[in-house]
């Protein structure tokens, strides 16, 4: 498939997990990939993995809470590949704790990475895309931003904020040919999830009508849809990839 043939896609948090799955899926569909991630070694390794498979890829160290570094990520994409067609704001962290135990630093860290990071990425991408008259921005929210999860007042707040950011930016940018959509994944089998206790995973699975978690590639396929012309008349939408959880 070549749904993104000739296009350049930037993926933050792209060195592992869902981010790397999206980058790989995009590359397999013809895109040139720019990986932005905080871990330079892992980011370079991911880019080399893509290159070994015959794809064009660039690794850029990027802390998404830094305006300078996010702008530099966009600059690197333009300097290397000449355009930015797709930008995925995926970088994220967790600092779970109950309200009583959560520190202000833990709250701020999660909001800064998820919400501020997505805003900085959306702004940088939009500046390039408005000049081109087209582009697709995909923000990764979470089902936690829809229903709220115990121990995640920081994460739920940030992920809900991403939905508001997505809808507001979609309205601002639509007349420029730039689309902005979001994905709310549920339980996805990443390394972080696999490290959870079995009873915690079992409790989450019990809430899912389909009876299983998602593979990262299943989220990546939805991101591909939103990044490609298959969703050309969609903007400001939030797509749940949850197996029916919390419907």
Counting helices, strands and paired strands, the structural category is alpha/beta
CATH class: Alpha Beta
Compute the average pLDDT.
97
Strand content: 15-25%
Q: Whole-number radius of gyration?
A: 17 Å
Tally the helices: what do you get?
Answer: 9
Shape: globular
**Order of strands across the main sheet:** 3-2-1-4-5-6-7
CATH topology assignment: Rossmann fold
**CATH H-level superfamily:** NAD(P)-binding Rossmann-like Domain
Note the run of SSEs as H and E: EHEHEHEHEHHEHHHE
Low-pLDDT windows of residues: none
Number of strands: 7
How many domains make up the 3D coordinates?
Answer: 1
The major pleated sheet works out as: 7 strands, parallel
CATH architecture: 3-Layer(aba) Sandwich
Helical content (DSSP H or I, runs of 4+) = 40-55%
Termini distance? Answer: 32 Å
What's the layout of helices and strands?
Blueprint lengths: L7 E5 L4 H12 L3 E6 L2 H13 L4 E5 L5 H15 L4 E4 L14 H29 L2 E6 L3 H4 L5 H21 L4 E8 L5 H4 L3 H8 L10 H12 L10 E4 L6
Helix pairs in contact: 1-9, 3-4, 4-6
Task: Offer a quick outline of the entry.
Helix content is 48%, strand content 15%.
Description of the structure:
The structure is a single chain. Helix 1 crosses helix 9 (216-227), helix 3 packs parallel to helix 4 (104-132) and helix 4 (104-132) runs parallel beside helix 6 (153-173). The chain is globular and about 45 Å long. It is built from 9 helices and 7 strands. The chain is of the alpha/beta class and 247 residues long. The longest helix has 29 residues, at 104-132. The model has no long low-confidence stretch (mean pLDDT 97). It has one domain (8-241): 3-Layer(aba) Sandwich (Rossmann fold), CATH 3.40.50. Belongs to the short-chain dehydrogenases/reductases (SDR) family. One of its GO terms (molecular function) is oxidoreductase activity, acting on the CH-OH group of donors, NAD or NADP as acceptor.
């Amino acid at each position: 498939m070549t749904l993104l043939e000739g296009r350049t896609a930037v993926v933050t948090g792209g060195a592992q997990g869902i981010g790397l799955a999206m980058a790989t899926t995009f590359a397999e569909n013809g895109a040139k990939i720019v990986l932005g991630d905080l871990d330079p070694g892992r980011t370079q390794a991911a880019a080399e993995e893509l290159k070994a498979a015959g794809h064009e890829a660039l690794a850029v160290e990027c802390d998404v809470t830094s305006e300078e570094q996010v702008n530099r990520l966009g600059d690197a994409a333009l300097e290397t590949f000449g355009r930015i067609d797709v930008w995925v704001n995926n970088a994220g962290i967790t600092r779970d704790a109950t309200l009583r135990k959560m520190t202000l630093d833990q709250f701020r860290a999660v909001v800064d990475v998820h919400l501020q990071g997505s805003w900085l990425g959306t702004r940088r991408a939009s500046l390039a895309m408005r000049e081109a008259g087209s582009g697709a921005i995909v923000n990764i929210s979470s089902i936690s931003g829809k229903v709220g999860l115990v121990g995640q007042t920081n994460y739920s707040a940030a992920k809900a904020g991403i939905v508001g950011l997505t809808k507001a930016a979609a309205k601002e940018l639509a007349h420029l040919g730039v689309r902005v959509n979001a994905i709310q994944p549920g339980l996805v089998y990443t390394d972080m999830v696999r490290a959870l206790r079995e009873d915690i995973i079992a409790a989450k699975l019990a809430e899912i009508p389909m009876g299983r978690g998602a593979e990262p590639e299943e989220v990546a396929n939805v991101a591909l849809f939103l990044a490609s012309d298959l969703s050309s008349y969609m903007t400001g939408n939030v797509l749940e990839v949850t197996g029916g959880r919390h419907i």
